[in-house]
Amino acid sequence: MATKLSDFFSFKLVWSRFPELIKKIPITLELAGLAFLVSIVVGLLIAVARYKKIKVLSRLATAFLSIMRGTPMLIQLYVAYYGIPAILRIFNSWGANIDVNIIPKIVYAFIALGLYQAAFTSETIRAALESVDNGEIEAATAMGMTYGQILRRIIIPEASENALPGIGNSLIGLIKGTSLASTCGIIEITYQNQILAGRDYRYLEGYVALAIIYWVLTVIFERIFKFVERKIKIPDQPKAIEGA
After folding, report:
1. Which of 125, 152, 179, 208 has the smallest CB count inside 10 Å?
2. End-to-end CA distance of the chain
3. pLDDT tens column, 178-219
4. CA-CA distance, 68 to 80, in Å (whole number)?
């Protein structure tokens, strides 16, 4: 019997995977969105602590960055999934009344993903803060502007423009990183593909469909961030006319 291409790979089967995978996109985006918020909040706190060189907080932040960047995301997901319930059970042994079983699995996943990404987001924010020209801050201070006004009119606008590309990459990285959330038992698009492939053992078609979906999501969010970058971009200062 002659071997056909469809015996190894079927474009029709790739197409048939999309409807079932697309149903789980909201879970993937919800997980990425929650993790993104955690990464921004924690990353901002770490960046400010290091930017202001607050002694104790800066050292703690440095230790946190070393741990989070020096260990795989997958390991951190496992630690969160098994470690957080263990910590809560310790509190229960001290008299707390916390029902560990009612905590949704997505909580463990977005905490782990968010803290992991915060280690990288913090460096993006810190670099953006340090890129603000001290001369502008000194000039604004000499003009009598308060620190709040300087923060609102100079530091935040300039730092936001410089940080946005890196923050956009963080969100895109989190969207792709949600593929590891299946370790916490969350049925997002990657886990859904494994379930579908387990029925007919056609894994390749499912992973091709999955790659296309992730690629489309990445392109969409890249375009969104490019649009926002253009909107918040500070106009360049006009060049002085020679001889004026």
Report:
1. 152
2. 86
3. 999 888 889 899 999 999 988 888 888 899 999 999 999 999
4. 12
- Both structure tokens of 52: 């202001």
CA 139-142-147 angle, 5° bins: 85
Tokens of 230: 């253009």
Structure tokens at 133: 């020209």
Rounded Cα distance between 37 and 40, Å, is 5
**Cβ contact 58:49 at 8 Å:** yes
* Under 8 Å between Cβ of 84 and 110: no
Which tokens go with 175? 């969207």
Find the length of the chain: 244
Q: Which H/E stretch holds residue 3?
A: none
- Cβ-in-10-Å burial (0-12, 13-18, 19+) of 85 comes to middle
Distance CA(28)–CA(13), nearest Å, equals: 22
Structurally, at CATH architecture level, domain 12-132+163-232 sits in Orthogonal Bundle (1.10)
* Spatial CA neighbour of 25 closest among 220, 236, 183: 220
CA atoms of 2 and 193, how far apart (whole Å): 30
In 3-state terms, what secondary structure has residue 7?
helix
- Using the predicted structure, report yes or no on whether residue 244 has a pLDDT greater than 50: no
